[in-house]
Design a protein that fits this description.
The complex is a heterotrimer of chains A (201), B (117) and C (565). Chain A is mostly helical and 201 residues long. In chain A, 80% of the residues lie in helices and 0% in strands. Chain A has one domain: Four Helix Bundle (Hemerythrin (Met), subunit A) (Up-down Bundle), CATH 1.20.120. In chain B, helix 2 (29-46) packs antiparallel against helix 3. Chain B has 117 residues and is mainly α. Chain C is an all-alpha fold and 565 residues long. Chain C has one domain (21-527): Cytochrome C Oxidase, Chain A (Up-down Bundle). Chain C is globular, with a radius of gyration of 24 Å. The chains are: A mainly alpha (201), B mainly alpha (117), C mainly alpha (565). The interface between A and B is large, with 57 and 64 residues.
Chain lengths: 201, 117, 565
């Protein structure tokens, strides 16, 4: 890796990217808060480990692979944007959006199965069995993955609209990177969510 | 706008602007992606260890490493100015204060594990 | 520079992209909200002093009515007035013009922020008209009371019962408002970093710009966990989850922590912009450079970090770990140190200055005196957990926070309005009415808030609808104190109508300003016309020195505009 001895100072950050980094920092505070609450409750309730076994680890693994790959695709789109290659930009962004669809599809499949087995957000079926503590696991599960899923949708929409605008007007190519940054944040949140929810037995 | 795409006068040899090819370094994105997949595989196999606390620590540490790689290379944090590092550091500081402050009132509390009368 | 023709009503009040118009839109909306919050205060104070009387313009106040009135008064004033006026209005009006640029970095995002704010106001006002009436569990929305009787103890409540409840609507209103403020915060931050005039380094910015930015960043980070917690509370209300329900492994104390984790930095978020306004007003009217610009900034940053380590002093008696209480108590007492430093710097600025006691200066000095002596010191009292165990939930706390909030939020806003009114409207506010407004507000605010200290020390609990059943609180002179507080509060509220009349009359028919720079100030907004054109300046200004160069030797005037060599 060839590195220049020159550096970037904060004056050379384009506005769009600075704004997205500020947004990302704020979102880290929100998701981070939720993850902190989950971790604290997980440390408190040993019985959550048993509930975690009812998650579909294979589906979660595939989803993690899909998101990591989509991050790779979006950074290739950024590379294409630096070279102002419209065709490549469209290719890589569409691949990223396809990954988003795959992620959401697998998630929907998981949710359907879990709801059919009685693991719901308010958890009435579990409550009837007296399993008050285990219900909290599912409440956190749906809240965290649901909120994350909303951000996947938002990120995919952002990438789509930015791609259309940039390829049509042929200016502000760095907006692709800014939208990509948001997508990477969504990926990072999932990097933490997956092991904490699925793998901690 | 001009402040971003032209270096300050007198500093042309020290400061990078977005048009420079070295602006965000030259990370090998494919290599980083493969490393991420390898770490991911390690995470999944690590979860088979029998001690829950050890699994928790190993998995959490690997997650931090993966997140750092995405941040530093895919998001180009390695080449970004310190302001961005400061913003992320503040977010991290917030979460640290939150977890330290909340720990004594969440984890050791058992008074609520009572059945509904 | 943009040169637009005059735009119509809809453009000015809804669609304008100009930051000054958007600031004005925010201000009018906030005046509307304050009218409601102030009216509620009038009603419940009348009820407290004269319990069995029908309150004029409202009727008989039942206990439920009382709970609803105090809850919504608190919510409106803290969330919409304080945050709105000091972040949205101040930031929108001041930041672009004080840094010498034409508008915000993202004008369309700015417009969207206002619309989100408007939606939040509509949701909040709608909540009063929903089937079970407005929220009534305290402005802090503690569960299980805030989960309402739509939670776990009425299994037959339908989803629409739960969703169309005021608890749900108010929380949604707060989510929209916070989104507006977060978007605004990003806008302020990027504008300040990227759009400053040539020559204006960060250390040459007027202090108020620093303060609004630090406040926005502090807001952004402290609100994160609360946003997560609010989603959890909304789920508890609407879906029946048990995040805060002890019978389901949840904990109401968790909400308290999440709320106050934001709630405490929030009060510093609303303190910093008025401190910034005070810096401008005090230095201009002392004809002296601001004492210790870098010192004040350092103290502010220390205070901002410390503010995230003190929150559980609101929870000393909620059953938190007592060892944690000790830690929070110590940090609370330490945080008084940087603020004392800032106030001392302001006093040092005034020391041996050629003081001009015009209206903005009166508000500024009144603010410093009341905030420090009565608000700040009683904060030290309450910070000591030992004393707080006695004083918690009494009127002592109510007096403390009114003495910290009112002098900063209200007096600070008035200092700003009286200072900048002639700049942004091109007309002058009437001085006689202004002086009447100031003195009446000052006297009757103290008449309202001071007796509350005495009542609190005597043991009067807050959030109680009717003290006439409690014997020890009906002994003389306590009912008299309540009546003095109420009558002062009513006169205080009536006085604000003097301001409202002055504001509207002067906007429409006030005397036009004779000069662009009546205060003889240095900052860039005074070097352009009153009102400033779209784009703020005819040509982009170039800045040569800092904003506080007053009374510099070897110059013919005692002030040096920033864009003058």
């Amino acid at each position: 890796m060839k590195n220049s001895s020159k550096k970037i100072t904060w004056r050379q950050i384009p506005q769009a990217r600075l704004a997205v980094w500020a947004l990302i920092a704020g979102e880290f505070a929100i998701f981070g808060g939720l993850i902190v609450l989950y971790i604290l409750n997980r440390l408190k309730y040993e019985s959550w480990g048993e509930m975690a076994q009812h998650t579909n680890v294979i589906a979660g693994t595939i989803n993690t692979f899909v998101l990591l790959t989509s991050s790779f695709f979006v950074v290739k789109a950024h590379e294409a944007a630096v070279h102002k290659d419209k065709q490549k930009i469209k290719l890589w962004i569409w691949l990223t959006i396809a990954c988003a669809f795959m992620f959401l599809g697998i998630k929907t499949y998981e949710y359907t199965h879990e709801i059919m087995h009685g693991f719901t957000l308010p958890g009435n079926a579990l409550l009837a069995e007296g399993k008050t503590v285990e219900v909290m696991y599912w409440s956190f599960y749906y809240t965290m993955t649901g909120l994350h899923g909303l951000h996947v949708i938002a990120g995919a929409l952002a990438l789509f609209f930015v791609m259309r605008k940039v390829t049509k007007t042929e200016e502000n190519y760095h907006h692709i990177e800014a939208a990509g940054l948001y997508w990477h944040m969504v990926d990072i949140v999932w990097i933490f969510l997956f092991p904490l929810i699925y793998l901690i037995h | 706008m001009s402040a971003q795409h032209t270096p300050p006068p007198g500093l042309e040899h020290e400061v990078l602007v977005p048009q420079d090819p070295d602006y965000h370094g030259h990370p090998n994105y494919l290599k980083i992606y493969i490393s991420l997949l390898i770490l991911f595989a390690i995470t999944v196999f690590a979860s088979l260890i029998h001690s829950p606390l050890l699994v928790f620590i190993v998995v959490f540490v690997i997650s931090i490493v993966k997140a750092s790689m995405v941040l530093l290379y895919f998001m180009h944090l390695k080449w970004e100015p310190k302001l961005i590092w400061l913003l992320l550091g503040l977010a991290l500081m917030t979460l640290l204060f939150l977890i330290i402050g909340l720990y004594p009132d969440v984890v050791p509390i058992t008074r609520y594990l009572i059945p509904k009368p | 520079m943009n040169t637009h023709q005059k735009h119509g009503f809809w453009h000015r009040y809804f669609f304008s992209l100009d930051h000054k118009d958007i600031g004005f839109q925010y201000m009018l909306t906030i005046f509307f909200m304050v009218a409601i919050g102030g009216f509620f205060a009038y009603v419940f104070r009348m009820h407290l002093a004269f319990p069995d009387m029908e309150v004029p313009l409202f009727g008989l106040v039942t206990n439920t009515d009382y709970n609803m009135l105090i809850t919504n008064h608190g919510l409106i004033m803290m969330m919409w007035l304080a945050l709105g006026m000091l972040l949205a209005v101040a930031g929108n009006y001041l930041i672009p013009i004080l840094i010498g640029t034409d508008d915000m970095a993202f004008p369309k995002l700015n417009k969207l922020s206002y619309w989100f704010f408007l939606i939040s106001v509509i949701l909040m006002v709608t909540s009063f008209f929903l089937p079970k009436g407005g929220v009534r569990g305290g402005w802090t929305m503690y569960p299980p009371l805030s989960v309402g009787d739509f939670g776990y103890n009425t299994p037959y409540a339908t989803f629409s019962d739960r969703f169309f409840s005021s608890n749900s609507f108010v929380l949604l209103a707060i989510v929209f408002e916070f989104t507006a403020l977060l978007m605004g915060g990003v806008n302020f931050f990027v504008t300040t970093l990227n759009k400053r005039a040539k020559g204006m380094t960060l250390m040459k910015m007027p202090l108020v710009v620093w303060m609004i930015n630090i406040a926005s960043v502090l807001f952004m980070f402290s609100v994160g966990p609360l946003v997560a917690g609010t989603f959890m509370l909304l789920l508890d209300i609407n879906v029946g989850t048990g995040f805060y329900d002890p019978y389901r492994g949840g904990d109401p104390l968790l909400w308290e922590h999440l709320f106050w984790f934001f709630g405490h930095p929030e009060v510093y978020v609303i303190l910093l912009p008025p401190l910034g306004i005070l810096a401008e007003v005090i230095s201009v009217n002392s004809r002296k450079p601001l004492f210790g610009y870098k010192f004040i900034l350092t103290m502010t940053l220390i205070a901002a970090v410390l503010s995230m380590m003190v929150w559980a002093h609101h929870q000393f008696v909620s059953g938190i770990d007592p060892r944690a209480a000790t830690v929070f108590s110590i940090f609370t007492i330490i945080i008084s140190f940087p603020f004392a430093g800032i106030i001392l710097a302001y006093i040092a600025t005034m020391w041996y200055g050629k003081l001009r006691f015009n209206l903005p200066m009166k508000w500024a000095v009144g603010s410093v005196v009341l905030f420090t002596l009565l608000g700040g010191f009683t904060g030290l009292h309450l910070g000591a957990s030992v004393f707080d165990i006695y004083a918690h939930d009494t009127s002592f706390v109510v007096a403390h926070f009114h003495y910290t909030l009112f002098p900063t939020v209200i007096f600070g806003s008035f200092a700003g309005i009286y200072y900048w009114f002639n700049k942004f409207s091109g007309r002058e506010l009437n001085k006689t009415l202004g002086n009447l407004h100031f003195w009446l507000t000052f006297i009757f605010f103290n008449g309202f808030a001071f007796p509350l200290f005495l009542l609190g020390l005597a043991g009067q609990q807050r959030r109680v609808a009717n003290y006439s059943q409690i014997e020890f609180l009906m002994q003389d002179p306590l009912p008299l104190y309540r009546q003095i507080a109420t009558i002062s509060a009513v006169i205080l509220i009536l006085t604000q109508f003097i301001f409202l009349f002055n504001f509207i009359w002067s906007l429409l028919k006030g005397k036009k300003v004779s000069t662009d720079n009546p205060w003889e100030a240095n900052t860039l907004e005074w070097q352009t016309s009153s009102p400033p054109p779209h784009g703020n300046f005819k040509t982009y200004p170039i800045v040569y020195h800092g904003p506080y160069e007053y009374n510099i030797p070897d110059r013919d005037t005692d002030f040096t505009p920033q864009n003058e060599k």
